[in-house]
Amino acid sequence: MPPTPPISPQPALNEAAHLADRLQQAGYTKRDIARIIDRDPSLVSQFYTKNKGAAFVPALRQVLAAVETGGITDLPELAAIAARHTQRRTTASGSRARVRGKAVLITPTGSGTGRVAAQAIASGSARLRPLIAEAARRGLRLAFTVRLAKTAYLHPSGSRTDSPGIRRDVIQRADHTEERSYGSAQTGGFDAADFARRVNATGGDVTAAVHQWLVETGRIQPDAHILHLEIRTWRPR
User: Fold this and answer.
1) Over the stretch 72-116, which tens digit does the pLDDT of each residue have?
2) Torsion angles phi and psi, residue 195, rounded to 5
């Protein structure tokens, strides 16, 4: 028999990954850590897979100290600590490096749309947060569409109690899910600033903010899972 090839040693974790591990041991998830440093959860995964995260080491050290010695557990408070210790990268010449900005596609007339599916929804629909924040800054209105399992809704399809004034067909799919819309230009929609406050209250988790509204207003089961989410904005007349 040919000799068994040697097993390649696992690459050593960088300091950002070590700090992230200690935060996870303290009870925080990668998604929590991403919220604390105000980045997408995929970046935290890249601490382990692509050796990234060096710029966040000072912030993560301070956050870990706040958790382990200061007893601070509140995510927004930890995020504020991280923000004070997060520095932008510099170029070889010492100037601040440019970073890719988040795309906020809102036209001068206030029209904007953002959509996320299962993977992004599971991590809090972070890419929709800038859209909502910009809509709030401009004083816009917004509406949203969600897709859930049919059994997750509390009202029957097309019920005016569920989504009054929306003259559109409920989209029913072959996988036993339904898409329903809440708010429209015809009914006035929702105040983007109020919705932005809801998102901030959930630590930036857009999925949780939408889910909370749907539960509070008696539209879905508390244990329902959002499978698709779309946000639309417009300028009020």
Assistant:
1) 887 778 888 888 887 655 555 555 555 444 445 688 888 888 888
2) -70, -35
Question: How far, in Å, are 147, 150, 169, 180, 218 from residue 172 at the CA level?
Answer: 9, 8, 9, 9, 21
pLDDT over threshold 50, residue 64: yes
Which residue type does 184 have?
S
- Using CA atoms, how far apart are residues 104 and 114, in angstroms rounded to an integer? 9
| 220 DSSP 8-state letter | B
Question: Using H for helix, E for strand and C for coil, what is the string for 78-103?
Answer: HHHHHHHCCCCCECCCCCECCCCCCC
176, 8 Cβ separation under 8 angstroms: no
Contact status, residue 94 vs residue 217, Cβ threshold 8 Å:
no
The reported pTM is 0.56
Q: Is the dihedral angle over the CA atoms 212, 215, 219, 220 positive or is it negative?
A: positive
